[in-house]
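Title: [Solved] SET nuclear proto-oncogene b 3D structure

Original question kept below for reference.
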Amino acid sequence: NVTGMSVRGENSPKRAAPLHSNHAALKLQETVFNLSSEKEQQEAIEHIDEVQNEIDRLNEQASEEILKVEQKYNKLRQPFFQKRSELIAKIPNFWVTTFVNHPQVSALLGEEDEEALHYLTRVEVTEFEDIKSGYRIDFYFDENPYFENKILSKEFHLNESGDPSSKSTEIKWKAGKDLTKRASQTPNKAGKKRQHEEPESFFTWFTDHSDAGADELGEVVKDDIWPNPLQYYLVPDMDDEEGEGDDDDDDEEGLEDIDEEGDEDEGEEDDEEDGEVTPIKHFFPLL
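Solution (posted by the thread starter after getting help):
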């Protein structure tokens, strides 16, 4: 009996492991994998940060070297700016034409502003020696009926903490000529360059120091106009181009009329060819 019991025990099926123990094992493996993955990710992030620090260091080094190069070439450009100013002085109304032809500056000009800018003879942009701390824009005027100043200037500064500021010349307006105090300006009689309502006076820019860090006009003059003002002086008059376009249209219409007349003549000739031949006696009298 004992032997039989032993045999039956050996031949009896083994009991399966509980399902909850298998699930626990899988959960443990998943936890270990996640911990390993998180560790690898953290190590990767730390290495990325180290590499990024090296990139930032190189960027700072590059900025310093670029600044030195810019300072060098800024000095080399000065004689050419001076020569260019001397040549521009030989062209009447060069600067007012340049400003009127510039889309952003033109939008800031009223009719009387444009008249006052006819007395503008010279514009100069001077970057401070270290360049990064700011710049100054000088406007030189002939004697004019609007203000006493010969030079109007506006400076932009960036202090060590990076805070921007600006200051400008106080305009000494002649009696009754303060363009910044005129509530409404006369309509633009010409109406050619600007098809919009008259803006505030261009000269309010000299008194506006509310946002020196985002002075659009100053940036446009320094970075867009000053490097090459000739490109805006030479902008063709759009009205003239439109007029030429109208002439071209007229010419085309004339050519179309001629073509139509030609087609009609050809049609008549075809009709004659299709009909009977006209007897000769119709042209020559009988003898």
